[in-house]
Amino acid sequence: MADNAGRGNRRGRPGYDLGRLLDVSVRVFNERGYEGTSMEVLAQRLGITKSAIYYHVSGKDELLRLSVNRALDALFAVVEEEAATTGRAIDRLEHVVRRSIEVLVAELPFVTLLLRVRGNTRVERQALARRREFDLVVSELVEQAEAEGSIRPDVDPALTTRLLFGMVNSIIEWYKPSRGMRAEQIADAVTKIAFDGLRTGARNPA
């Protein structure tokens, strides 16, 4: 295993370690689609030989696996944070939503790729299974918040989860880092819109 850590420093075009290889590969996958991207296309975009890519990874599937796992690992790290595991369920839920937005913005190409997988390969099916695990964690938080009386009980928890993360996930379709909008601004807007409607007693007066 120690041998792998230094591989990117010994071969290939200078500057193309595994991290840089993933950055470029994810960009191409998002542009062309995973199935529409060949190793030859990746090599051309990177300006290196296919053998130089194979020095880092076993193939295109491994590039996909490493890329979607980067996004998934970041999301699962959110639900393990102290603010996501202690306190009232409604506050933990809001923390998870807010931090998920921050992860999405920080790892935008990787989360975009994750949200576009369709289950056509084993790697994609594994990614979808992990996404469902994450959704289940959030759904359980919604159920706990409903049980403690913090959110309105007239919306199904599974539907609430889908609506919350439908709003979060839609950010990949319009967010452009070059426009200068910070993750905190987006998170403030989303949580205000979503949780003002979810919290009991938060409805606007007639």
TrEMBL record:
<dbReference type="InterPro" id="IPR009057">
    <property type="entry name" value="Homeodomain-like_sf"/>
</dbReference>
<feature type="DNA-binding region" description="H-T-H motif">
    <location>
        <begin position="38"/>
        <end position="57"/>
    </location>
</feature>
<dbReference type="InterPro" id="IPR001647">
    <property type="entry name" value="HTH_TetR"/>
</dbReference>
<dbReference type="GO" id="GO:0003700">
    <property type="term" value="F:DNA-binding transcription factor activity"/>
</dbReference>
<keyword id="KW-0805">Transcription regulation</keyword>
<dbReference type="InterPro" id="IPR050109">
    <property type="entry name" value="HTH-type_TetR-like_transc_reg"/>
</dbReference>
<dbReference type="InterPro" id="IPR036271">
    <property type="entry name" value="Tet_transcr_reg_TetR-rel_C_sf"/>
</dbReference>
<dbReference type="InterPro" id="IPR041490">
    <property type="entry name" value="KstR2_TetR_C"/>
</dbReference>
<protein>
    <submittedName>
        <fullName>TetR/AcrR family transcriptional regulator</fullName>
    </submittedName>
</protein>
<keyword id="KW-0804">Transcription</keyword>
<keyword id="KW-0238">DNA-binding</keyword>
<dbReference type="Pfam" id="PF17932">
    <property type="entry name" value="TetR_C_24"/>
</dbReference>
<dbReference type="Pfam" id="PF00440">
    <property type="entry name" value="TetR_N"/>
</dbReference>
<dbReference type="GO" id="GO:0000976">
    <property type="term" value="F:transcription cis-regulatory region binding"/>
</dbReference>
<feature type="domain" description="HTH tetR-type">
    <location>
        <begin position="15"/>
        <end position="75"/>
    </location>
</feature>
